[in-house]
Amino acid sequence: MSIICPDCHAELEPQNGLAHCENCHKDINLEARCPECHQPLQVLKACGAVDYFCQNGHGLISKKRVEFVPV
Ligand SMILES: [Zn+2]
Ligand SMILES: [Zn+2]
């Protein structure tokens, strides 16, 4: 999924919890949220891989399903 720059509304591709807007020359911090309950996910980093875990009973969330929202 893509996210929208809050300043210029360009569509950005999130990478590693960050989105870079070339129009505004800035990085936008993203928060990972559960697609089911929309609560912030716990980020588990292991061996270079990142996993997302919902503490509200939805377990591990695949990176493709994580909702990223600008913070
Ligand atoms: Zn922008
Ligand atoms: Zn959840």
TrEMBL record:
Keywords of this entry: ATP-binding, Helicase, Hydrolase, Nucleotide-binding
Keyword Glycoprotein assigned: no
Cross-referenced Pfam families: Zn_ribbon_6
The UniProt record lists the keyword Translocase: no
Entries under SUPFAM superfamilies matching the protein: YfgJ-like
MF terms in GO: helicase activity
Record-given protein name: Protein of uncharacterized function (DUF1407)
InterPro entries: DUF1407/YfgJ-like_sf, YfgJ-like
Domain of life, per lineage: Bacteria
